[in-house]
Specification:
The chain is an alpha+beta fold. Helix content is 43%, strand content 13%.
Amino acid sequence: MKVNPNKMYIVYTPFYRSHKGIFDGKPTTMQELKNKFKRGMDADVIDSIYSTKKEANEAADKLFKKAKRN
């Protein structure tokens, strides 16, 4: 899978109770991701990185449904 460093979609691990906490639908650039790590974000909070919004939405939906069951 080839990821464009100027347009990535990041799905976070579901530790929030809202779908928005897992995936906000906005693309992230490599610079924005780098800045998040500088501000203290841990790599463990990222579940996956996708190149398309559709793939990221599908993965976020699965994670959200799985988290709601627990």
